[in-house]
Amino acid sequence: MAIDNITVMLPVKCSAILSEHILPYVCSFLLAGGMYDACPFQRLVAAFHAACGSLEMDSAKLTVTLD
Fold first, then answer.
1. What is the pTM of this model?
2. Best CA proximity match to 42, nearest among 32, 56, 54
3. What whole-number distance in Å separates Cα of residue 25 and Cα of residue 39?
4. Which parts of the chain sit beneath pLDDT 70?
5. What is the rounded distance in angstroms from the CA atom of residue 60 to the CA atom of residue 52?
6. Are 66 and 45 in contact (CB under 8 A)?
7. For residues 46 and 52, what is the distance between their CA atoms, to the nearest angstrom?
8. 61-to-8, 39, 57 alpha-carbon distances in Å
9. Running DSSP on this structure, what letter comes out for residue 11?
10. Which residues are CB-neighbours of 48 under 8 A, at least 6 positions away?
11. Where are the domains of the chain?
12. What's residue 1's pLDDT?
């Protein structure tokens, strides 16, 4: 399930509370000038490439995207 669909499954009050909690993070991503630069998953992608290297896999052949 995509994170943007989570609020659809919650009651309205919970959805509003969740929105209040994630709004600062969304704003920081947008104000950073580039999603990847501010993305908390940047370390995850770097760890993925490092793990591929330790397994002697060519991570360039694997696709990792941050949509």
1. 0.32
2. 32
3. 10
4. 1-12, 29-41, 43, 57-67
5. 9
6. yes
7. 10
8. 36, 23, 9
9. -
10. 59, 64
11. 1-31, 35-67
12. 47
DSSP assignment letter at 23: H
52: tokens are: 């591929």
* Alpha helices for 1-67 (secondary structure H): 12-31, 35-38, 42-54
Question: 3-class DSSP state for residue 2?
Answer: coil
Please report the pLDDT score of residue 50 as a whole number.
82
C-alpha 50/C-alpha 32 separation (Å) is: 25
CA 37 – CA 31 distance, rounded (Å): 11
* Contact indicator for 52, 59 with CB cutoff of 8 Å: yes
Long-range pairs, 21-25, Cβ under 8 A, ≥24: none
